[in-house]
Description:
Distance between the termini: 57 Å
Structural class: alpha/beta
Radius of gyration: 25 Å
Bound molecules: thiamine diphosphate, magnesium ion
Shape: globular
CATH class of the largest domain: Alpha Beta
Strand content: 15-25%
Number of helices: 18
Largest sheet: 6 strands, parallel
Helix content: 25-40%
Number of domains: 3
Number of strands: 18
Amino acid sequence: MSLPASQKPARGERAPRARSALSVRDATYAVLRERDLTTLFSNPGSTEVTFLAELPDDFRFVLALHEGSVVAMATGYAIARGVPSMVLLHTTAGLGNAVSALATARVNRAPLVVVVGQQDRRHLAHQPFLAGQLEGLAGTYPVRVEQPIRPQEVPAAVDRAWHESTTRRGPALVIVPMDDWLAPADVDSEPASPQRILRATAASPGEVGELAALLADARTPALVVGAGADEPDTRAAVVALAERLGAPVWQEAFGARAGFPQDHPLFAGHLPHDRPRLRETLSPYDAVLVVGAPAFRQYTYAPGRLVLEGTRVLVVTADSDEALRSPADLTLLAPPASVCEQLVELLPAHEGRPAPEREIAPVPPPGPGEPLRAVHVIDALAARLPADAILVEESPSNRPELNARVPATSYLSLVSAAMGGLGFALPGAMGLRMGAPGRGVVAVVGDGSSLYQIQSLWSAVHYRIGAVFVVLQNQGYAVMDQLAGRAEGGNAWPSVDGVDIAGLATALSCPARTVTTYDELTEVFDAVLPTLAGREEPLLLEVHIAREPTSKP
Ligand SMILES: Cc1ncc(C[n+]2csc(CCOP(=O)(O)OP(=O)(O)O)c2C)c(N)n1
Ligand SMILES: [Mg+2]
């Protein structure tokens, strides 16, 4: 069935231009326009110069000074907008630097179209300077890697990357030799990519019925939500389902996003990340419905089963990888919003299965002579953070306190790197701020973590990105020291002390302040946090805190 012409997205410049004048580059610009990919995150090199030489004025070029920052910014931008971002990388040097950030994008389910420059086709066989062995460089993290078989295939390959990054929610790579851009486009045959792909959003009633029957049988059901539930329709549907069942809702451990309003009376807290504590936590429930998460996300290995016998595990996810690795009694591979909406209709209302009590008292401010601690900073932030702000977390030793004390209450209110790869938070926060300009963005970042992509602050200054970066300065890798059980030092690695992070920010022209007392902290938070949504310049706060002696799981 063909659509009426008025409903077809325009095919950009392809048709009107004279055939002989249309280059592969022009045809690709048209695809990028058509697919809303006109913001280019990049750190370019000579193999990309031909592509960029005549970049039209309606394109926006965003420069970051390392490819880890380029991809993390694009990832934040894609997460905030829910559609693919465009990335341009420089052959092996650029793609190699970007691999860890691409892995983060994949696991965070951020759609990216990534064009990787390559040496000239005409002498690639001679392996000239800058020739890249690119195809396998990012391993299996990309959802697709394509080396177009001829220059004329490039525009359609970029279009296929756009489709596939949308379908499978991750980075799709297209490797383009530098001479391809100036080759004549093929205007005679149709591009090998569909104009539109409609993806079914509704689960079929028969399958949902099976799940409903199992849940209706349960006497003590509970829900577990994960990053895949952090989508407005899904969140609303999960709330309705939890209220229908009268069931407590847990947040997956180490989740990159929060899938349920954590100020809701049915919110039960964060699941533990090891098997013994997980078994114990889930032992009261005879059925656990996991929505938008695997069953179950772990960190520290401990032997034994995930749940006790007698607890039935049901999973609803749109992510087939997540479905595959979850030992569930029944998995429904379908958009979670539709499944949960239908379950609400099918299940009888139930009351009286409250969430366990959660008492999280604020810690009193430090007394005279007492050091400023991370919990003081976190409580002070929690008391002032606007409800619609986006909090980006990358503070390894303080993550549990941050999760517990700053409830993520709305869509996108918490974002972190699902892979645990440090270096996401600073540039990721910038991309989020660019993609969700109406929402304030605060990144809480460890001192060690901040140093992986500190140079990204240059981009925040240059593009006037008003995110606030709170660096918790505890002079080292506290979580590593704690894991090694030697918080007082004596590890194989030294403390990372003596780094003036505010000074580094200043050197990159980023406004910065060093904070050492509670009064300074509250004064600067009171001044800055109410301005978050309208800020047009970045600010880095280096907050000196005590090293915590005890290990926290
Ligand atoms: C790219 C990368 N390299 C190394 C690690 C291992 N790692 C995990 S936590 C950590 C230390 C983080 O230090 P900091 O940000 O200061 O946080 P703190 O533990 O002090 O709260 C390191 C090196 C990692 N996760 N990612
Ligand atoms: Mg630290």
